[in-house]
Amino acid sequence: MSDAEIKVSAEGLMRQTGTYKPPRDPMQIVRWTLLFMGAVVMVMPLVYMLSASMKYPHEMFEMNIIPREPTFENYALVLSDGRFLQWFVNSLIIAIATTVSAVFFDALVGYTLCKFDFRGRYIIFIAILSTLMIPTEMLVLPWYMMSLHFGWLDTYWGIMFPGLMTAFGTFLMKQFFETVPDDFLEAARIDGLNEFQIWWSVAMPLVTPALSALAIFIFLGNWTAFIWPLIVTTDQSLYTLPVGLTTFSVEQSVQWELIMTGAALATIPTLIVFLVFQRYIIRGVAMAGLKG
Amino acid sequence: MKLYSRLSIDRKRTVWAWGFLTVPILFYVVIRFYPTADAMVLSFQSWNLLGARSWAGLENYVRLWNDPVFWQVFRNTFMYLILGTPISLVISFVIAYNLDKTRFLHGTLRALYFLPFLTTAVAMAWVWRWFYQPVPIGVFNNLLSSMGIGQIRFLNSTTNALPAILAPAVWAGLGFQIIIFMAGLRAIPTSYYEAARIDGVSNWTILREITLPLLKPTIVFLVVFSSIGFLRIFDQVFNMTTNDPGGPLNSTMPLVMMIYQTAFSSYQMGYAAAQTVVLFTVLLVVSLVQLRILRDR
Amino acid sequence: MKSPRKAILGATTGLATLLSAQTLSAVEIEYWQYIFDTRVQAMDILIERFEEENPGITVNHSTFPLADYRTRLAAAIPAGQGPDVMQLFYGWLDSYVDEGLIQPLPADTFDPDMIGEEFFPMVGAMMRDGAYMALPTAVRSLALFYNTRLMEAAGLDSPPETLEEMIEMAREMTIRDGAGNFSQVGITSGMTAQDHHWFREVLTRQHGAEPYLDDYRTVNYATPEGIAAFEFYTGMETEELVTQSGFMDEPQAAFRAGRAGMHIDGSFRIGALEGTRGLEWGVAPLPLSADGVAANYGSYWVNAITQRAQDERKEAAVKFMEFIVSEEAMQLWLDVVGELPARPSVALTEDNLANPVYGPFIEGLEGAHTTLFVDETAQRQVLVDAVQRVLLQGMSPAESLTMAQEAEQAIIDRAQGN
After folding, report:
1. Do residue C257 and residue A254 have CB atoms under 8 angstroms apart?
2. Is there a contact between A133 and B280 if contact means CB atoms under 8 Å apart?
3. pLDDT at A287 over 70
4. Among all residues of chain A, which has the CA nearest to that of C250?
5. Which of A155, A234, A253 is opposite residue C3, by nearest beta carbon?
6. Residue C89's beta-bridge partner residues?
């Protein structure tokens, strides 16, 4: 083996074990610096938003990032009428309920389509998968008419019902259940568990990383959803955070420091959750993205 | 119950399977398939929400075909796609490729790049809208004027507004694409690289001959995924052009927004339904074409 | 009605009402309007008074968010519910009439000739085939708001009386930096706000044009006179450099922020301006043309009796209608809501005319025109686009306005065709 070969295979070993440290050559420093600058640019809009939310109106249009007289007055003002809190609670309830339902049913359907053999399985799989091609925007009109007809306008149920199951999640969970060996399930069957128990207490625990990845995706999707809640709600007390924020910002017109405060209030909770569960979330997103 | 206990194990499992699927099948039929059919039916009808639905034949489609605004909107929708997808994929690949080779503060950098993905499009639309304002308000124009450069009309321009609205959408999507690219890069076995290095091949050739071809599944996924996203852009446009929806002069109006306006501002439900059928067709065709082209290569 | 449960509750009470109406010969009617604090208050007071005067009649007052109106109706009517008397924006009248939702006001109580005499002329827009379909309690008009501090700073002591003076003064109050960027505009502009009404019904007429013909079925503003009006409007930005559309994002925002000398807006803006800290402002009538022509744009919410009101319900509904468009109701509406009375006999009192805030608006009522929109949003967009073509694409005002006329005519024709 030549020196070069030894070096390369050692590097490969370290890459795999995670102990690899590339040499500190000048190229590497340039690369890092550029990446760092890029990262700063990426978060700049968030920084400016937070900075503006802590400025007094007269300082608002100056370029300094750190406010000369930082204040929480804007937050007090925005929160004072209780609407933001209400919208926040609405969004939370809706996102959690939808996530629980979608994860439960997507896993159940994915599991059934993966582990059961019965006539019509393939057709159902294709049928569910085909709904991926139907854009939400096409369905909003009929959903709206349904809601009108059944009195679902301005109700939590009306906001939630379209998202109670997802084709994407079903497909994803089916992929993940492929990795669960049939022997495990067979063993449980011999132990006398019924099919629901097998799914719930044997198969599900084996795919928890996938479940949490799916949960993150669905939660984020519902937390930021805009067009359907915008259409189905007109009663301010039922708005979700994004819809409320739109209304609020239009009302405020020029008071940008208040608009930025509203935007910050809508953003900060997810940022905090992210900072706490960072590794988990990134791994989950990568996993869902690669399998899906 | 007696009937059930007499069934063979396979039969029992079939019963369970259909049991598990009952509610979901009901859901998909009522909430997905029926509405799809209903939207298609509605596109051949005329309805203003107050009266009865009446048949209109092909009228809605004929009107769409003859509507210059629709063709403008059609162009806009594709502009979002044509600008958005390549730009965001190139940027995110460059970042992912280099980030993959960096160890120092790797986790922190990755987190910073990922952060915008977690934001709400509505909130960020307002942040960017503020940035784009003319002096003395907007951050960008203040920055330009402090450097002695003239102002740029970002949103109040028929040429700049569309890219200006696209920017926050691209920005917010980068984090996701970077993570997916990095996962794709990690999945490439190191032995390929080792073999190439032994042969003394340049980094550029490695990238072109090994990395990119092996990343193909990742690239296909991201191209299709982000294309669908850009074709359906709405939140940013709605919030950044509340004064003149889809303006100026319809230059930023995407198809989804036209649907929204037609249905919920003009109450022409049939006409809006015809537009949704077009949207459906566009999404279908674009995804199929992309899958075919990218898979074949 | 926010939930299905409440809807059922509503249905049962509705049923109960029906039964009790037959047995006790007491009538209960439904009144609908949109949610706006002072309006709801004023209506509650009116209903209380009405019920005192008419012991046999009970009025149920339901309110809904503005954006919700059409869907509430669409949901209620097939179910046999909904209002007997309702408030609607005058611009919606056509589609409500077309769908057979409302019935003409009986001519014996609401004699068309009498209404023509006793109400401001713009209310005539509510007449269909010789009968009135709906009547307003209150009306709105446009006037010129000005920032007193900026006027003083520019050495101006009284608001402009003519368009020419307005431009002069606007020039005095405009502040631009060396690069030509506005930091303060003399007058706000933006068709997205009230300017499209100002142009449509005021500027065109002041330049000698007749903006619409055939009862608003034919668009007619792209005549040489109308084009002159449009050139005047766009000229404020392109020639006189006293305004910038989109400055501070929207006109009323610029005025509220104290960065605009003058601003044309409706009487409904008063409330918002009164609550703005640090802003000192006054109101003047819309400026006259060089040869002294005055015009104004009037809009209003009207009350109408729906098809649901039949027999004794109709009788009660007619009585209630009569009451809420009475002089008494109008004065109360002005006092509580701050909206202008629809009858000259109430509006044009000395007290009201002398009011520094309401006076100029009330003065405008006499010459106010009401555009019969078929789709106000779409028709507004036509003028928004017309201005943008001039400002952003350098098109000539004449060509742009001609295109606008064609586009608006197409919108009207389609609506008439349906």
Report:
1. yes
2. yes
3. yes
4. A253
5. A155
6. C301
**Are C63 and C122 in the same domain?**
yes
B266–C375 CB contact, under 8 Å: yes
What is the ipTM for the molecules in this complex?
A: 0.91
- Sheet containing strand C142-147, edge to edge, reads C175-176, C182-187, C260-266, C142-147, C281-284
- Per the structure, the complete domain to which residue C238 belongs is given by 142-297+374-417
Domains in chain C, number: 2
- Tens digits of residue pLDDT in B244-293: 888 799 999 999 999 999 998 888 999 999 999 999 999 999 988 988 88
Q: Are residues C184 and C106 in the same domain?
A: no
Same domain flag for C238 and C383: yes
CA of C67 to nearest chain A CA: how many angstroms apart?
6
pLDDT over threshold 50, residue C196: yes
CATH of domain A79-291: 1.10.3720.10
Chain B residue with the nearest C-alpha to that of C253: B243
Report d(CA B293, CA C11) in Å as an integer: 59
In which residue ranges of chain A is CATH 1.10.3720.10 found? 79-291
A-chain residues near C252 (CB < 8 A): 253
Q: Does B68-296 carry CATH code 3.40.225.10?
A: no
Hey, is the C-beta of C377 within 8 angstroms of any chain B C-beta?
yes
**Given an 8 Å threshold on Cβ–Cβ distance, is A151 in contact with C7?**
yes
Domain limits of chain B? 2-42, 68-296
Quickly list H helices, C212-287: 224-238, 251-256, 270-274
Q: What ranges make up the beta strands (E) of C91-157? A: 102-103, 127-128, 131-132, 134-140, 142-147
Q: Which of A42, A41, A62 is nearest to A51 (CA)?
A: A62
* Interface probe, candidates A125, A138, A291, chain B, greatest B C-beta count within 10 A: A138
C-alpha C335/C-alpha A207 separation (Å) is 67
Check CB contact under 8 Å for C253 and A154. no
pLDDT of residue A288: 74
Q: At what angle do helices C37-53 and C311-324 cross, to 10 degrees?
A: 120
Q: Do A151 and C250 touch (CB under 8 A)?
A: no
Is the Cβ pair C246, B243 closer than 8 Å? yes
**Cis preceding linkage at A269, omega within 30:** no
Measuring CA to CA, how many Å separate B220 from each of B226, B247, B285, B296, C367?
A: 10, 33, 15, 11, 65
Question: Is A154 in the C-facing interface, judged by CB distances under 8 Å?
Answer: yes
- Provide the greatest CA pair distance for chain B: 88
- Note the pLDDT tens digit of each residue in A232-245: 887 788 999 999 99
Chain C partners (3+ C-beta pairs within 8 A): A, B
- Residue ranges of A 228-247 with Cβ closer than 8 A to chain C: 234-236
Residues from chain B contacting residue A63 (CB–CB below 8 Å): 139, 142-143, 146
Q: Residues C339-386: pLDDT tens digits?
A: 899 999 999 999 889 999 999 999 999 889 999 888 888 899 999 999
- Same domain for C116 and C28: yes
DSSP state of C292: -
Q: Which of C77, C182, C388 minimises the CB distance to B247?
A: C388
8 Å CB contact between A144 and A232: yes
* Distance separating alpha carbons of residues C310 and C317, to the nearest angstrom: 9
Identify the CATH number of the domain in which residue C186 sits: 3.40.190.10
CA proximity to C158, closest of C241, C262, C265: C262
Residue A254 to residue C256, Cβ atoms within 8 A:
yes
Chain B residues within an 8 Å CB radius of A36: 105, 109
Banded pLDDT at B296 (limits 50, 70, 90) = low
Residues C8 and C120 in one domain: yes
* Structure token pair of residue C149: 């501090």
